[in-house]
DNA sequence: CGATTTCTTGATAGGGATCAAGGTCTGTGG
DNA sequence: CCACAGACCTTGATCCCTATCAAGAAATCG
């Protein structure tokens, strides 16, 4: 497990957590510095390598710096549920790492890089920068809202609605970190994983995507996904436009 | 909306949040006092009255003091998904209240009482008691783990497994706050709501419960639920015994 | 004690799983 | 540069779990 860690290159892309939070609230120089410190180390992770392995014990969390990752659980008989997709700037290892034995595994979906943040460091940050603590706290609202939405997907929406919703959510999230165009993005998941995220079988994901394609709502070419008719797809998905952006942290923290 | 608020009676039951956190980590006198202050006001809520209404704007959250509540979303066509069940000591209004317009509604399932905690108060607490902030932070791990489990339920488990898992989770949570016996508890939900929580129809919840009864795994008498065969039901549910209790906060905060 | 709720059970239908098999793409080694 | 293996995608046929529709029983409540 001894893996080389090099100091990070001091570019904007190299500190996605800072970028993400700064977009929500103006940060002081000290706060920025504290966040940078959290992203100072860099550990490369190969595609489909585990970042966190269920059952192990961790003394900290990770910040995903680049690439994508998924948190999931495999049941005894092999069924798998993907719980969420982490993108650059996300804290991964939450909540897994807060338990004696990590509850879930986290695996890189692409070549990726993470920063290691030991708990004592995280909690020191809470002590020294309570405002950052509050911001991080609020950030979890955002994440919790996505879980809720996924739960609604899987519990009460049809396959068609689920897939539509999933595509729009990914588009929105990728746009927020500058990794998607106006209407298109690169899908980091295979159809198998989409199925495991949405509680569907592979053939059914495939058929559902085909149907959406035939209705000219989306275009799929390899990993490239383009939403041909955003309004149409939004209607199908019952997607709350921008539910992910209607945040009030700024107002709350003044 | 102007509702009388009286000072709380100074009993142990009256401050379930304090009790819950104190069980995780020893609290200092100041920390205890700060928590008490969060639970100082009391607002009664009638059964099936809304505590938070989707679409409105709130400047704080609530602590559920007594009773039970649910967070849910209703889709345009009437389908409903129950997102979680709040029990005494839980913060309700998270994440709903952090958005401009609350994302979800929260309704009392029983006669209930809540305390109002304005954001400025919550964030002042973060400033003055960073350790409490860290504890609350960790507490959300616990909640996040339950969401994940619910997602696995709905995405990848059969109706039988879902219901079994749900019963065991409720038992565990109610025991943790001293509101359940060794193997029995009072179910705060109707079968309709169980269905809406687990993504099942009412008739199917009913049939599934009947089957579990016939197999002598559970006993149901009105609202009283008893788990006749805990090991059996645990096997059916693939329930990680005590996944809700294997927490490490104590160790982390020293 | 009448009126809602809530629970229960049956009959039918459909959405999506499962099983199966072929096609395509990508990378790798000869 | 080609052949091959493995991963991934695609499509079809069949089946089953669970939804839906329907209607009556029980319980709860004003």
In short:
Two copies of one chain form a homodimer. Chain A has 254 residues and is an alpha+beta fold.
Note the main attributes of this structure.
homodimer, 254 residues, alpha+beta, Jelly Rolls, Arc Repressor Mutant, subunit A, four-stranded antiparallel beta sheet, 43% helix, globular, disordered N terminus, DNA-binding
Walk me through this protein's architecture.
The structure is a homodimer of 254-residue chains. Chain A has a four-stranded antiparallel sheet. Chain A has a four-stranded antiparallel sheet with strand order 2-7-4-5. The first copy, chain A, starts with 15 loop residues before the first helix and ends with a helix. In chain A, a hairpin with a 5-residue loop joins strand 4 and strand 5. The first copy, chain A, has 254 residues and is of the alpha+beta class. The longest helix of chain A has 27 residues, at 130-156. In chain A, 43% of the residues lie in helices and 20% in strands. Chain A is globular. Mean pLDDT of chain A is 88; it is low at 1-10. Chain A has two domains: 6-138, Jelly Rolls, CATH 2.60.120; 145-244, Arc Repressor Mutant, subunit A, CATH 1.10.10.10. The first copy, chain A, contains nine helices and eleven strands. Chains A and B meet through strand 5, helix 3, helix 4, helix 6 and helix 9 of A and strand 6, helix 3, helix 4 and helix 9 of B. The first copy, chain A, binds a DNA duplex (30 and 30 nucleotides) through helix 7.
């Amino acid at each position: 497990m001894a893996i080389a860690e090099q100091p990070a290159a001091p570019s904007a892309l190299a500190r996605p957590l800072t970028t993400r939070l700064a977009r929500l609230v103006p940060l002081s120089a000290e706060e920025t510095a504290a966040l940078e410190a959290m992203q100072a180390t860099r550990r490369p992770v190969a595609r489909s390598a585990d970042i966190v392995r269920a059952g192990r014990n961790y003394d900290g969390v990770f910040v995903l710096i680049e690439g994508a990752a998924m948190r999931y659980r495999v049941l005894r008989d092999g069924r798998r549920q993907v719980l969420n997709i982490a993108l650059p700037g996300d804290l991964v290892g939450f909540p897994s790492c807060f338990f004696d034995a990590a509850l879930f595994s986290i695996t890189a979906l692409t070549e990726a890089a993470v920063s290691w943040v030991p708990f004592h460091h995280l909690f020191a940050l809470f002590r020294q920068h309570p405002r950052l603590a509050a911001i991080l706290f609020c950030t979890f609202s955002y994440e919790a809202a996505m879980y809720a939405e996924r739960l609604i997907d899987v519990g009460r929406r049809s396959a068609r609605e689920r897939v539509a919703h999933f595509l729009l959510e990914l588009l929105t999230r990728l746009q927020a970190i500058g990794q998607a165009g106006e209407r298109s993005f690169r899908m980091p998941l295979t159809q198998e994983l989409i199925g495991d995220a949405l509680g569907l079988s592979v053939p059914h994901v495939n058929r559902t995507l085909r149907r959406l394609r035939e209705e000219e709502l989306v275009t799929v070419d390899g990993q490239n996904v383009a939403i041909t008719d955003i309004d149409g797809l939004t209607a199908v998905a019952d997607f709350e436009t921008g539910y992910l952006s209607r945040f009030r942290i700024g107002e709350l923290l003044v």
